[in-house]
Amino acid sequence: LNSTILEFKEQQSKVIEAFKGKDRIGGRVKERSIFQVVQIVSIWRKLTKGYLVYDKQTGRIEKLEDLQSRVTLSRQQAADHVGLTKKSLDDYLLQLRFGKKANFNFFINKYRKMGVLRKFVKEYTDGLRQSQKFKKVSSLDDQEHESEFDYA
C-alpha cells in the first residue's frame, strides 16, 4: 500500500511539474495536451473537494487517507497549489464539460492538443446556436400563420 501511495505521489508531482512547463527548455508551454489538462483539472477539483491535501512542509500534493479529516480549499487556493490561474482552470473545466456533453472522444484524442477540443466545442456550440435560430424563426412563422387565420 505504501509503494502505491509513493507511486501516486510521484506521478502527481510529475504531472504538475510538466503542466507548469518546467520540463520544457526555454520557456512556457504554449499548448497542453488533453491528457495533461484532464489530469491537472482532476487534481485541482480533488483539492477543492478535500480528497487531496497540499503538504506545506514538503510542498507536495498528497492523497488523503482519512476522509473524516477532510479539509476543503477554495478554488483559488487549490489553483495556487497546482500552479495555474483559476481562470485557466475554469476555462479548461468548461471545455472538458462541453466536450463530454458533445460526445467528444477523449480516449482517442488524449495526446492531441487542447486546440482540437476547443475547435470541436466551438463547432458544437455554433451548431446549437444555428438550430436555436432556426427554431425561433420557424416558431415565429407559425405564430404569424395562426394570426392570419384567426377569425374569432
Topology:
Layout: H1 2-20, H2 34-49, E1 52-55, E2 60-63, H3 75-82, H4 86-101, H5 106-109, H6 114-148
Antiparallel strand pairs: 1-2
Helix pairs in contact: 1-2, 2-3, 2-4, 4-6
Structure, described:
By secondary structure, the protein is mainly alpha-helical. It is 64% helix and 5% strand. The chain has a two-stranded antiparallel sheet with strand order 1-2. Strand 1 (52-55) and strand 2 (60-63) form a beta hairpin. Helix 1 (2-20) crosses helix 2 and helix 2 crosses helix 4 (86-101). The longest helix has 35 residues, at 114-148. The protein is elongated and about 60 Å long. The N and C termini lie far apart (79 Å). Residues 23-27 and 147-152 have low confidence and may be disordered.
- Class computed from helices, strands and strand pairing: mainly alpha
Adjacency order of strands in the biggest sheet: 1-2
Number of helices: 6
Proportion of strand residues: 5-15%
DSSP E strands, number? 2
